[in-house]
Design goal:
Length: 154
């Protein structure tokens, strides 16, 4: 088991935590508990921030992956995985931005069209973000299989 493989297994655990927190947050939003939704989605975001910090340290101390040793299937899978990560981060980041804008309306029952549109856009972006995260996790599983094969562990 190489240090890089250990790092990527750790990243998968974090990704499961990110998605788990997001699903708990989504369930709270569906039940109208918006402060709890906010709390869980912020937890998910902070796990992402923690991962980005640990990824930077990984690149500094362990370097990047040597894609020359990867089968072309896994390189393409990596690029697809990176696309899903970009969807997760882009949509999630914009959803977070919108949430910050309408945070003062959380307890209001009658919303103006302006705030309703922002909330609807937030909801759509949030769905895209969670879909991206789940797709990134699935592609990460395929990438882990390739890493385990290259390490002759399976």
């Amino acid at each position: 088991m190489t240090p890089r493989l250990i790092f990527w297994l750790y990243a998968m655990v974090l990704t499961c935590g990110i998605i788990g927190c997001a699903f708990v947050g989504i369930s709270h939003a569906r039940n109208g508990r918006y402060q709890l939704h906010r709390l869980w989605m912020n937890a998910s975001s902070w796990i992402i921030v923690g991962f980005v910090g640990s990824y930077i340290l990984k690149v500094i101390f362990l370097g990047k992956e040597d894609l020359q040793t990867w089968d072309s299937f896994y390189v393409v899978t990596l690029r697809i995985h990176e696309f899903f990560i970009a969807v997760m981060l882009g949509c999630g980041g914009f959803a977070r931005y919108l949430a910050h804008q309408f945070r003062h309306t959380l307890d209001e029952t009658q919303l103006s069209t302006h705030w309703r549109k922002k909330r609807d856009t937030h909801k759509k972006l949030g769905k895209l973000s969670i879909y991206g995260a789940c797709a990134a996790l699935i592609t990460a599983c395929a990438l882990i299989v390739g890493m385990l094969q290259r390490a002759a562990l399976i």
